Amino acid sequence: MSVAQLSTVLEDMHVHSTFSDGKNSVAENLSRAAEVGLSRFTCVDHVRRDTDWLSAFVPHVRKAAEQVDLKVLVGVEAKFLDQSGTLDIPDDLCGVDRIYAADHQVPLGESCQRPRDVREAIHHGVLTKREVIRACVDATIGSMRRYPDVVVAHLFSVLPKARISEDDVPREWIDELAAVAKETGSMIEIDERWRCPSPRTIALFAQMGVPVLLSTDAHRREDIGQYEYALAALEQAKALSRELGEVA
Q: Which of 4, 22, 61, 199 has the fewest Cβ atoms within 10 Å of its own Cβ atom?
């Protein structure tokens, strides 16, 4: 899908429910999605390795989807555990459609660090911004290669928390990410809640032919399908794509 095609798609591909930290039920979220005229929707909830409700979650969403005129998918969001891209995810995914790989903390080596600790390490010269960015790139690539049907969730959202700008990410590393996404059939989302990734990143992924999804990452039904950053970023990405010579 090209950047130019995206603005015509009425979708919200990342919404949380009471199965994890959302405020509303799956049925309430789906009803709201139908009310605002969406055509595609993904129910996404946070999981960990010891999550034991997936066997109930998946059929619950499938049944609720029968009550609305929407294409509804089931997803789980899992955080990186290390720089190799291991996700905090159960072995049995019970038939979920998509895995959302998320940078909730900074993946460094065999573990993850809190952004504020990473800020301190950079301040004291223990780490460089470039090393932190590369670690995030490595983890994202590792997750795309390791798991099927990956959506890269709110790419680079952890960087500002560590006081690193997405503008500091080298172009060649974004190209590398996009190439792996294309190779593995992975997807990327524009996340309204975290206002990322940047139009430059969106344009480069779209150039590579990687599907780009619109997501609010909503935790309450009132926010479903309500976009500001995502639509503005799309328009800027379109202009950048024209400059780069967009590939259909």
A: 4
